[in-house]
Write a structure and sequence with these properties.
Chain A: InterPro entries: Fe-S_Maturation_MIP18 (IPR052339), FSCA_dom_sf (IPR034904), MIP18-like (IPR002744), PaaD-like (IPR011883), Zn_ribbon_PaaD (IPR056572). Chain A: It comes from Paludifilum halophilum. Chain A: Pfam families: FeS_assembly_P (PF01883), Zn_ribbon_PaaD (PF23451). Chain A: This is Phenylacetate-CoA oxygenase subunit PaaJ. The complex is a heterodimer of chains A (166) and B (264). Chain A folds into two domains: 85 residues, 2-Layer Sandwich (GMP Synthetase, Chain A, domain 3), CATH 3.30.300.130; 53 residues, no CATH class. Chain A is built from four helices and nine strands. Chain A is elongated, with a radius of gyration of 17 Å. Chain B has a single domain, classed as Ferritin, core subunit, four-helix bundle (Ferritin, Up-down Bundle), CATH 1.20.1260.10. In chain B, helix 5 packs across helix 7, helix 6 runs antiparallel to helix 7 and helix 6 packs parallel to helix 9. The longest helix of chain B is centred in the middle third of the chain and has 30 residues. Chain B is globular, with a radius of gyration of 18 Å.
Chain lengths: 166, 264
């Protein structure tokens, strides 16, 4: 394998990118860690791969699980001898780091993607992922995981979850 | 003074000592309050608040872990050992955060008063010269914003509702008032923390900024300002605590003590 160093996620070698694309968020199995935007950096040199992951929320209990899954999957890539995963806060994860594909899949899964930056973070009711109505209300700022809130759609009368803008 | 990492901090013993003390204050406040929040699980007045308080507890304990990990980088023990095996006199949380929950309204009042303080303290740490701390604070602040919104909504709602709700929140505030000033203490190394640029505000300035935030909420809630904050009897930031903390530590550590070496 050619020695190379990669410092941003746009230029991850294809074999590593394909492998990371297969690692899903354990709590939202519809989207990959790449689509979620939590991979900060991938460096690979002579079969040694170093991955930096940035948590969506500081206390996210799925973090160790995600780190292990990344390690396991990358170890199966040809030529990879060693994988090191570290968790960093800089730059921090913000909801606008999710890819357009990630946002689409999240919505398909039934979770409204976070309202995009610019709206500021706070209480912004997203479009209902089921019927697309925009006139929902906040049901609970907190939800089943740290990164989600619960809303209620006044048109199709469905409660739905949405990712918090942070 | 700009310090990029734990190695640089460790090379300067006086700096390291003051920094470690502040990190313990941050960790212990969040750990105690997070534990108290978790005690509402299954007992909150409605299921939505069960969900909210579980989620807030998870955030607070997660923040505590972040600060304890920074201590580990400085050469302190493993975060679990720091959380579960430290005696009360080595704890640096404000006494307010160790008090039992009591009434739901008192819980709301305490969390609201604390969150306002926490917002002021995090703001004072945003440009901290200790860069690993500043980076975490930038992230934590975005999460705490949601706690602040939730708690200020409840605080004003209970006050403005009148009747029994207002009576209970008023009683809650009165019972907490003697412990509130303890939040602003920066402990034994305040002068060093300011001089080294670890934190931007001293305790008097934090108190002033806190009052600027809290007074309008009292007005909106229709609550009477209870008067000047009394000087605290004990300074939790110097390891002076009540039996409530002893009880909290014992309860929190019950599972850990069954088998301290277990892998979870």
């Amino acid at each position: 394998m050619v020695a190379e160093t990669v410092t941003d996620t746009d230029h991850i070698p294809d074999d590593l990118r394909r492998a990371l694309q297969e690692v899903k968020d354990p709590e939202i199995p519809a989207i990959s860690v790449l689509e979620l935007g939590i991979i900060n950096r991938v460096e690979s040199e002579k079969g040694r791969v170093r991955v930096e992951i940035t948590p969506t929320f500081v206390g996210c209990p799925a973090l160790d699980l995600i780190g292990e899954a990344v390690k396991k999957r990358l170890c199966r890539v040809d030529g990879v001898k060693e994988v090191e995963v570290s968790f960093v806060m800089d730059p921090p994860w913000t909801s606008d780091r999710m890819t357009p594909e990630g946002r689409r899949k999240l919505k398909e899964f039934g979770i409204a993607p976070p309202v995009e930056e610019g709206a500021g973070f706070g209480v912004h009711v997203p479009e209902c992922p089921y019927c697309g109505a925009e006139e929902g209300e906040v049901h609970n700022l907190f939800g089943p995981t740290a990164c989600r809130s619960i809303f209620y759609c006044k048109r199709c009368h469905q409660p739905f979850e949405g990712m918090k803008p942070v | 003074m700009r310090v990029e990492n734990a190695e640089q901090a460790a090379a300067h013993p006086a700096y390291r000592k003051a920094l470690a003390d502040l990190l313990l204050q941050l960790a212990d406040d969040e750990l105690c309050l997070g534990h108290r929040d978790s005690e509402w699980l299954g007992l909150a007045p409605d299921i939505e608040e069960d969900v909210s308080f579980s989620s807030i507890a998870q955030d607070e304990v997660g923040h505590a872990v972040f600060f304890l990990e920074r201590l580990q980088e400085l050469g302190e023990r493993d975060p679990d050992l720091l959380a579960f095996q430290r005696p009360p006199d080595e704890r640096r949380n404000a006494v307010l955060t160790e008090r039992p929950n009591g009434d739901w309204a008192a819980t709301i009042a305490r969390h609201f008063l604390y969150d306002c303080f926490d917002a002021v303290r995090l703001e004072a740490l945003l440009d901290s010269g200790y860069r690993p701390l500043a980076r975490g604070v930038a992230k934590i602040r975005r999460e705490e914003h949601y706690h602040g919104m939730h708690l200020s909504l409840w605080f004003t709602r209970l006050g403005a509702a009148g009747g029994e709700a207002r009576q209970r929140i008023t009683a809650g505030v009165e019972s907490l008032w003697p412990d509130v000033a303890g939040l602003f203490s920066l402990g034994a190394y305040e002068a060093e923390l300011i001089r080294y640029g670890v934190i931007a505000c001293d305790s008097a300035e934090m108190h002033r900024r806190w009052e600027e935030r809290v007074r309008p909420a009292f007005e909106e809630a229709g609550l009477v300002w209870p008067g000047e904050l009394p000087l605290p009897e004990r300074d939790g930031r110097r390891g002076e605590h009540t039996l409530d903390l002893q009880e909290l530590i014992e309860t929190m550590g019950q599972v850990h003590h069954l088998d301290p070496a277990a892998q979870w």
